[in-house]
Every structure is written in C-alpha cells, then in structure tokens.
Amino acid sequence: MKTVQKILVLIVVFILTNTYLNARTKNGFDISNATIDRNQILSGGPAKDGIPSIDNPKFVDIKDVNYLKDDDIVIGVVYKGIKRAYPTRILVWHEIVNDTLDDLHVAVTYCPLCGTAMVFDRYIDKQLRSFGVSGLLYQSDVLMYDRQTNSLWSQLAMESVSGKSVGKKLKWLPSAHLTFKAWRDKYPKSQVLSLNTGYSRNYSATAYKSYLTSDEVMFPVPKNRDELSNKAWVVGVIIDGIAKAYDVTKLPHNKTIKDKVGNTDILITYDKDKNHPMVMNKHNKEIASVLVYWFAWQAFYPNTSLYK
Fold first, then answer.
1. Is the same domain home to 145 and 249?
2. What is the DSSP letter of 31?
C-alpha cells in the first residue's frame, strides 16, 4: 500500500512540475519574466526555427530576375547607394532575413498573418544580434528571438517581451512596400533577394491563399476597435509614442495629404497602383511606416487614432 502511495505522490509531483515548467517555457524559450500575458503566447505550429530565417542572403541583379511578376510585392531598403528588394513571395516562407548593407545590419521581418513587413537595426546595446523565428505568436504576430540571448521579440510591439533582453527596444527603419514593377522602374540597377536561399520551398506558390481572401483571423486577438473590418489595410505610424492609422481606401490616389501626429507635421502619399505608401516629415525625411491589417494594429495599439 505504501508503495502505491509513493507512486501516486511521484505522479502528482511529476504532473505539477511539468505544469509549472510548461507555464514558464514555450518552444524552449524561458517566458518566466514575460511582460505580456503568458497565456496569450501561442504556438503557431512550427518548432523553434521550423520556419528558417535567411542568414546568408544572396542577391540577383534586377535585370536578371525572372521569378517575379510585375504585381508581386517587394520590401525595399536603400542605404549608402545600396538598393535591395526582398520579395514577400520569399519572405512568407522565412519571415526574417538577416542582412548587411555596408555598415548597416538589418533584420527584414515579415508576418503573413498580420501582413506586416518591418525592417529593424540589428545592433542593440552595441551588440550585433541575429534573429530567428521562434514558432510562437502574440496577438497573431510573429515572435522573433535573438540568438545571442534567446530572448523573444515582438515585431509589432518592437521590443523584447521575455528573456535576458526583456524591455529592450528595436530601432524601426524606413522601408518601401511596393510592387516589383514600381521598384524596378525606380531602381533599375538594384538587387533582389535570390531564390537560392539554401532551402527547398515552392516560391512560385501563393502561400496563405485562403487566409488572404477571408476576413477571418487565424488566431484570437483582442477586439478593441471595430471601425474597420479585420483585414482592412491601414498605414500605421508611431511618432513620439503616438500611434495613428490611415485607412488606404480613404487616402486619395497618389496625392499628398498633410496631417499631424502629436506635435509632428507629416506628409503621406499612397499610390494604389503601386501599392506604395510613403510617409515623410516636413523636411522630406522618410518616416518608418507599415501596411498592416487593422485587426493587428488595433490589438497592439488600442488607443491609435484613425485618420478620417
């Protein structure tokens, strides 16, 4: 009888220990000091690095690109004369590209569930970071991790949410979101991310096709605002901590409008043919912005103002 009791006690201890550990770790990441609700850190399905980042990107001269259509979307980065385009057709399979342009080290990130392509500086606290895909989501948005500290980072929140780097901020860099044709016309001597990624993927396929044509979300997010449908496209900006969104259907085609975010005067243009938003300050310096589904923007920034 005593043996049976000991076995039962051991089973209970085992269950409680595993429950405790599972509450503090997910996909191998320590989330015990998470600044977000641990219950809202969800598995997207793949394991850590199950979606492999591109860490040694190769590029093709744009004149030799034969694997993109004119209306394919690319994310463009320009720095010190270097012009590179990263097709979302490739990014959707990898979500992160760790790249270097001269002395600028960038992480080109893409979350297909939120529609968000954002570029960040990889130098944080004077340490160069390399980012990977954790396989976890928060409010339907990709949680990245850095290989130096194994900390989790939220793309849309632009900060570390757990681990040794918790609370550290990402520096958001301006990038272009536009069609391949528009990029090619503007930068005929640029480079484009190659299909030679080191991985076997069907880059010609349209991933998430059914998701893209539905207004439904795949993972639950808080419903804070209902002015727009879930997957209405908005241009999101954050200036001095103030978030604002611009419904692209309310922006006049290829005409510049003046607006104010906090104390900052801005100019915003949206070319619907090129699917290209651009936000500038009054000194014609580009301000980082992102095309994003409304459901995701309002989840992360519930107090966002909405341009009317």
1. no
2. -
